[in-house]
Amino acid sequence: MSFKGFREDFLWGGATAANQLEGAYNEGGKGLTLADISPGGKQRMNLMFSGDMPLEIDESKYVYPNHKGIDYYHRYKEDIAMFAEMGFKTFRMSISWARIFPNGNDTVANEEGLAFYDSVIDELLKHNIEPTITISHYETPLHLVKEYGGWKNKELISFFEKYARTILERFGKKVTYWMTFNEINTGLMNNFFSTAMQKPTEEEIYQGLHNQFVASSLATKIAREVNPNIQMGCMSVYATMYAYDSDPVNVQATQEKNRMFNYFCNDLQVRGEYPSYALAYFDRKGINVDMTEEELAVIRENTVDYMSFSYYMSAAMSVNPAHQDEKSQGNFFGGVKNPFLKASDWGWEIDPIGLRIALNDLYGRYGVPLYISENGLGAVDTPDENYVINDDYRIDYLEQHISEMKKAVMLDGVDLMAYTPWGCIDLVSASTGEMSKRYGFIYVDLDDNGNGDMSRHKKKSFDWYKEVISTNGEEIK
């Protein structure tokens, strides 16, 4: 560790997910996933959280932007060359389970899918970019939803174990950094993408998460058998929680929300056991999770090497009815409007200092290296006739967050290993299925209706981030 700045081997890079940029949803032997049947537009979020997501593709009623994504499946070499020009040290990507096992439970892996990811990984390594692979990023095969009811069914543990073993044995000798489930704690929000369940009960939500904890631990066990040098991480979304005021009832409510949302899943994967507050909650609510001693041993004996998290916003909490008229628009985690913060075009409250608080909170609690696997500003970018995009708003957002990261390292002693801003190249939004919600350093000529030639263009932030990486963040104050 260095208290003078980011460590010399700091992993600067960018993050994406297969279902949001690859496209080619029905090519190369790939099966359908949850993402493939999720329509674009603002109705996507309502369908995702209401449990009414149709489990079929209906092109007469909906559009599906991620079916072609940004055509990374065919253009990955071009895109990776641009990442290399920026100086990426790592690229966080995911593997689509359904490219490897089209139905999720097939007996034989799809060689065409394996060969595709072999080529992508080799292309990254050719440019001296370390892949960071997420094994499951909101892409459960659709067949496992229809036939097994999603992650509440324990049979998915063995299907995932086989999938994880297949890709770890194939790629584990040349890929060091791995993560198991993306934003696993969003399953607590009844997120269809996370646990692949329609209208689950609270008990089914916790059963689904338990099954994922077991599956994640088995993947970690396999990784160490394949290559002891592999670094396996867990991944959750973190929202710094503030009590709206000093009223003790709001402070207590904030503490409870913080424990169950920000800590619960990480406690299982980093510490390896169910925390007492969760067991007390289950008892109080009459929740019975089917867990065996063998499963608990697997969780206990296969904890992760590092902890990664996404950070986009914080949340102010109040149980006072007088505050409920000031709901925070766009905040996934609930809460009320924070009068001290501004919000993005999509209503996400912007809180750079909250990231420093998060880093201190998590490192103080877990004591393992931290990896910021997602952070960024979703905004409308408007190019001129020459595709010039002066996205100073994005530069300002990222610069403020990196500054707080640097303070956490230099002043607070946090061991931070990586930073991969989300959507380093424009891609289809997971929450709304839109292209207009852009995060990237690279503009892709494509609109929400699929119009555009998909040409790639550097934004102003491209050269700015290149400079940040080349100086290892030294210019950030």
From TrEMBL:
Would you identify the family this protein belongs to, as annotated? Answer: Belongs to the glycosyl hydrolase 1 family.
UniProt-annotated catalytic positions: 374
Q: What is this protein called?
A: Family 1 glycosylhydrolase
Give one Pfam family, short name only: Glyco_hydro_1
The lineage's top-level taxon is Bacteria
Q: What organism, scientifically named, is this protein from?
A: Candidatus Vagococcus giribetii
Keywords on this record? Answer: Glycosidase, Hydrolase
Tell me yes or no: is Hydrolase among this UniProt entry's keywords.
yes
